[in-house]
Amino acid sequence: MRFFFGILLITGFSFQASAQRECAAVANRNPNFRSLAKANANRPVGHSRDTIVNEIITIPVVVHVLYNRPEENISDDQILSQIEVLNKDYRRLNSDTINTPAPFKSVAADSRIMFCLAKVAPDGRATTGIVRKHTNNVYFLLDDGVKFDGAGGADAWDPSQYLNIWVCSLAGRSLGYSSLPGDPAETDGVVINYDVFGSRGLLRAPYTLGRTATHEVGHWLGLKHIWGDTTCGSDDVDDTPTQSSYNFNCPSFPKMSTCSPNANGDMFMNFMDLTNDACMNIFTNGQKQRMRSLFALGKPRNSFLNSHVCDPGQANGGPLPTDTVVNNPTVASGFSVFPNPAINVVTVSPKGDFALANKTIYVYNMEGKMVLTHKFFFNTEKVNISSLPAGVYIMSCGEGKSRVTTKLVKL
Ligand SMILES: [Zn+2]
After folding, report:
1. Which of 153, 185, 223, 291 lies 20 to 30 angstroms, CA to CA, from 323?
2. 147 vs 190: CA distance, rounded Å
3. Does a structural domain hold residue 61?
4. Considering the domain boundaries, does residue 15 fall inside one?
5. This model's pTM is above 0.90
6. Per-residue H/E/C for 46-96
7. How many other CB atoms are there within 10 angstroms of residue 247's CB atom?
8. Residues 228 and 306 both lie in one domain
């Protein structure tokens, strides 16, 4: 059953809000957002080569976490769980291959494509492959704003070396969307809503197994929807049966449609249909060939054969901070913390014309994860930090240009 609860039109961009899986594979392009992918001057450049039959192709990933509310700042573990899902689904190591109906098992494929979190940033420094950034945007439209610093998002890392994945709150709680091979470099990548990313963490049923990213990365690797986006259309893959349209929820096998070529009906359990996470479990050999063909000499993803940014040995210099800390030097006010370093309790007081009463201070560790909050009722209060492990933290108050931060050392 289809159940759209709203179709919104906002300043010329249209998108559908849906309680069920939807997919905007081709995002609206906003010509007002112009930026170049960050330079990668320090990276050693290899010579182009062709793919080798059956080689495992490993794709370095950078995950840009754009958060407004704390819960959108998803954990490292949730991000890791998504990388694990991708590696299982693209290698047919997913535990639910048992659910692939017998007639389709013969075309099921191990694509021999894998994913790793990047270890080297575009400037050559070490990275976790996770970039966290606070944004003033309560949500992002499907207009690629999330891909640009200037629109409250984060600029792409060199898309010839990294698969850029942006995780954020999407308008209408859309699940995600992807660019297609050959799209402009600065918008190359995949956008996924924060609460359908990964298989561990606070996730929105029935999208709790990380299949939204499996599906969108399929588009990034050139796959079309299995019904060809038109009635009884073609996905340009021979071993996926023609089906009249998409499927939602999880039909029972066999699910016949008007153009089913035989009694097996729709391949509704294909990752490129729109069924629930727990319903999907297969890429086919044809889809595998289509994806891998993109890595051949002269094809849009060929450069990934020479991407070494998952090799920590290629990194130089100190590690990158994974959170963007806004220090506005023109703001003379802020707050002070005493004592610092501290063990159990610190006194936090405003400086200059800053006020703390009725504001909240957020404490982040050096991985950008929020570990403590304190709501102030008065301008000066004591904050108990005894629960924090020893280390360096950033205390942050306010947003955007009015955000002020102070470093705290916990002993
Ligand atoms: Zn799609």
Report:
1. 185
2. 10
3. yes
4. no
5. no
6. CCCCCCCCCCCEEEEEEEEEEECCHHHCCCHHHHHHHHHHHHHHHCCCCHH
7. 23
8. yes
CATH number at residue 405: 2.60.40.3080
Place of tokens 């403590």: 372
Tell me how far the alpha carbon of residue 375 lies from the centroid of ligand 1, in angstroms. Answer: 42
Distance 272 CA to ligand 1 centre (A): 6
Distance between Cα 239 and ligand 1 center (Å): 19
CA–CA separation, 98 and 282 (whole Å): 10
Which residues are close to ligand 1, an ion, with C-beta < 5 A? 23, 25
- Using DSSP, state whether 160 is helix, strand or coil: coil
Question: Which of 61, 57, 58 is closest to 80 using CA atoms?
Answer: 61
**Number of domains composing the chain:** 2
Tell how far the Cα of 175 is from the centroid of ligand 1, in angstroms: 10
Distance 176 CA to ligand 1 centre (A): 8
* pLDDT tens figures, 256-298: 999 999 999 999 999 999 999 999 999 999 999 999 999 999 9
Name the residues annotated as catalytic.
Answer: 216
